[in-house]
Amino acid sequence: EKEYNLERSMNAMIAEWNEIEYEVKAYKETKTYIVGGIDDIMTLLDDHLVKTQTMRGSPYIKPIEKECKDWEYKLKYAQTLLDEWIGCQRTWMYLEPIFGSEDIMRQLPNEGRKFASVDQLWRKVLMETFENPNFMGQADPEKRLSEKFKSANAKLDEISKGLKDYLEVKCLYFPRFFFLSADELLEILSQTKEPRAVQPHLGKCFEGINKVNFLEDAKITQIISGEGEKVDLVTVIDPETPANKGNVEKWLLDLESIQWDSIRHETEGGL
């Protein structure tokens, strides 16, 4: 009777997983998906692992010991897969809009190639998950998804490190970038072909400059304070010159230098 109860408990657990599915949702405009409903799945996994390990310690487990051991292995594999999957999803969601920028891809070609390979894996797996959202169906060890996501996470770590080093180089060239968050700096660097993209962040980089006046050809002629005071620059800054184009930190360094000359010129003129 006790052997039968153990077998029935294990079969009930297996049957319960037949109904458990990921919540597969479309993600923004990426034409791919992300998964949800993770907390409930993790809670159930933990609960069933404890139950299975308790069953394996029973003196009555002998007739189904192999099946129970195989089931425990599958639950542990599913748990590992879920951890790797969610880690990959979190980092992929952060990096996807960054590497969707042509400017970033041009400036970080190695990281761009690595991200493209991870992105390809992600889209393939999530399309399969969309078509078959059953959790245990995707957690089949024969699919080797855990190993694939583990490899993808290693690549994403390398990409994140490369991105961090890249941002640090930009900040060391133009130290006022340290006043910006990583996301704000990436927003600027992902649009280097559009000098006006820096406008919303000037107030954080310069205490007295809230914005600058761009001409139609993107040349900068004035600095403007938060109170609306305008000062003409003694030297017009052109972000579109060959040296400046695509290197926002270079023409911002020019702006930092020329602002002092311009304020000095205005001050001397008022004496």
Question: What's the arrangement of secondary structure elements?
Answer:
Layout: H1 2-17, E1 23-26, E2 33-36, H2 38-56, H3 65-99, H4 102-107, H5 109-131, H6 135-138, H7 145-173, H8 182-189, H9 202-205, E3 211-214, E4 220-224, E5 230-237, H10 248-269
Antiparallel strand pairs: 1-2, 3-4, 4-5
Helix pairs in contact: 2-3, 3-5, 3-7, 5-7
Structure summarized in a few sentences:
The chain is mainly alpha-helical. It is built from ten helices and five strands; from the N terminus they run αββααααααααβββα.
What does this structure look like?
By secondary structure, the protein is mainly α. It is built from ten helices and five strands; from the N terminus they run αββααααααααβββα. The strands form two sheets. Strands 3-4-5 form a three-stranded antiparallel sheet, with helices on one face. Strands 1-2 form a two-stranded antiparallel ribbon. Helix 3 crosses helix 5. It is rod-shaped and about 105 Å long. The model has no long low-confidence stretch (mean pLDDT 93).
